[in-house]
Specification:
There is one protein chain. The chain is α+β, with helices and mostly antiparallel strands. It has helices spanning 24-43, 70-78, 84-96, 127-132, 144-147; strands at residues 2-3, 9-18, 49-55, 60-67, 102-111, 134-135. Helices cover 35% and strands 26% of the residues. Helix 1 packs antiparallel against helix 3. The longest helix is centred in the N-terminal third of the chain and has 20 residues, at 24-43. It starts with a strand and ends with a helix.
Length: 150
């Protein structure tokens, strides 16, 4: 099986790192902000998030997200009525105050149509296939090179 769809794929990775376990007041607001944003995005699919997966760790926590388009991701980031803006403002305020007790990072990959490929063998829908659905490999090309538009 392979992921269905042939448009742009936007992969957004966002995470945090707890630099000081004892500074609960610094990192707890960051931990609590992400579930609120995920719930907000899941309630309103028009925002553009297709799906997500939490990536837990010991000090590092991350979320892998798939978006319809980079335009929708960027629109969510600046939406003054959403959960993201106040969370980002609060984080920046704490960071400027010199409390580097928690780190934050994100990476965005906007992959043009025809520039990504997937295969799922003996797997339930996973990753991009879980958010877009899956189709038999032959519908998008038998070889990885075919699915990549080579």
């Amino acid at each position: 099986m392979t992921a269905d769809g042939d448009g742009e794929a936007v992969v957004f990775l966002v995470g945090m790192r707890i630099n000081s376990w004892w500074a609960v007041r610094s990192w707890l607001p960051v931990v609590l902000a992400m579930p609120r944003m995920i719930k907000e995005q899941a309630r309103d699919r028009k925002r553009g998030m297709l799906g997500y997966r939490f990536l837990p760790g010991l000090r590092n926590f991350a979320v892998l997200q798939y978006w319809e388009s980079k335009d929708k991701l960027l629109a969510y980031a600046v939406d003054r009525g959403g959960e993201h803006r106040p969370a980002w403002t609060a984080y920046n305020r704490r960071a400027r105050a010199g409390r580097a007790k928690v780190g934050f990072w994100h990476e965005t990959y906007a992959v043009p149509a025809g520039s990504y490929e997937s295969i799922y063998a003996n797997m339930p829908p996973h990753g991009l296939g879980a958010v877009r659905g899956v189709v038999p490999v032959g519908r998008r090309g038998e070889r990885a090179a075919d699915r990549l538009g080579a």
